[in-house]
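Researcher: Next entry in the queue.
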Amino acid sequence: MKEELLKQADLIDCLRIDGVKDLHFQEISNEMKIPISCDVKNMETREVLLLLKEPQLSEKEDFIREVAEKAKNQENLEKEILKIEVTWKEFAMIIIPKGGRDDGKIIYLLSGTDEIRTKLEEDMYMVNTMASDRGLMDNPELKNKLKKIEESLTDVTETVEQWVLVQQK
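Model: Structure for this entry, 169 residues:
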């Protein structure tokens, strides 16, 4: 009995990781056919004990651990997406004014295009890798975030390519 309770308590701890969100609790609640508080981290002792007594808890142990693992992976994806967002918000594209044209007009050159292209390629690769993660399919919010990042990176790539073409003329 004691071992079973410890095993179930460990299972509840799986649900206390930071990555587990409302949608994960909803998924578990639907599977177990019992309401589970989305606020497991702050449950009172008696609420935890009531949850421990649920027979579905041990019956659905593998499912619960799978959802918790998926939540953890999704949290890691969110962190990677945030890194890409922050990088591009802080990324400085240097534009250098250059005179000396025959008509006296100043032209503007984009500096460091090789670095920009390399960073774009790296981040697009990361985005494509993340997009293939099967845990993404169950999280529409995360999927939309990733899609927006991909669209933004595509826009930046096209803009840089056009700028480079203009510079070469």
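Model: Residues 61-90 form the longest helix (30 residues).
Researcher: Noted, moving on.
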